[in-house]
Amino acid sequence: MKVIICENYDELSQKAFEVMKEVVTSKENPVLGLATGSSPIGLYKCMIKDHQENGTDYSKVTTFNLDEYVGLERNHSQTYYTFMHENLFEGIEIPEENVHLPLGNGDLEQNCADYEKAMEDYVVDIQLLGIGSNGHIGFNEPGTSFDSLTHVVELKESTRKDNARFFDPLGEEVPTHACTMGIATIMKSRKVLVVANGLNKQDAVYNMVCGPVTEDCPASILQNHPDVTLIVDRAAGKRF
Ligand code: F6R
User: Is the C-beta atom of 130 inside 6 A of ligand 1?
Assistant: First the structure.
């Protein structure tokens, strides 16, 4: 695993952007696995700026997002569908038919099976991940099988608490469930890029790289992936 420790979040975002751009510009039809949350926002800003200033083309890019909350209407302000459109897709002018996110409404089991099936026609060239303070990747919480495919999960209280900052101002509760790519789904990607910043990530990041490979820390499975780059700021990398 390649570990890059940056001085701050801006540098982390810039480095992550360089890794992402290399994939986007070197493939004819790049397939990107994407994440939501705070960690990739700086990277997404760099991608938008680069598209606007340098004309990097996203018309042939296909994307698959990691996860989606269960039970929110697609256009709810806190769905990952909305997040991705506001924070990336509109800014890089990617065709709507090229973007994919799990559907958190209707027949969830069928939606998950359909998502996994849709992904079978592609190989993800680069999978971007954040990491939860409990070591989750996607919404694969501690204890999730390393063999898991796209599935419905019950979110841990710690994860709901971490994400309450987005729902509290709306007077709403964080959903209790989500649909997520499984760990086996994530491991199929050619390359993995993990970004993490802030002191609250230091233990998760350390366990991911230096701890035992165990389902208690889902991110630790990445030690078995042949091409992982982890980019952290000083705070998240404090224990190295
Ligand atoms: C988001 C996702 C989650 C986040 C993780 C970190 O699509 O899959 O695993 O990456 O919860 O979230 P932030 O970046 O908000 O700290």
Answer: yes
- pLDDT > 90: percent of the chain: 98
- Chain mean position to CA 162: 16
| Ligand 1 pocket test, candidate residues 38, 80, 83, 131, most atoms within 8 A of CB | 131
For residue 105, count other CB atoms closer than 10 A to its CB: 15
Q: What is the pLDDT of residues 88-108, one digit of tens each?
A: 999 999 999 999 999 999 999
CA distance 178 to 105: 10
Annotated active-site residue 207? The verdict is no
| CA of 16 relative to ligand 1 center, distance in Å | 16
Whole-angstrom distance, CA of residue 176 vs CA of residue 6: 34
pLDDT digits (tens, 9 = 90+) for 127-148: 999 999 999 999 999 999 999 9
With the CA atoms of 102, 105, 110 and 111 taken in that order, what torsion angle do they form, in degrees rounded to the nearest 10? -10
pLDDT in tens, 182-219: 999 999 999 999 999 999 999 999 999 999 999 999 99
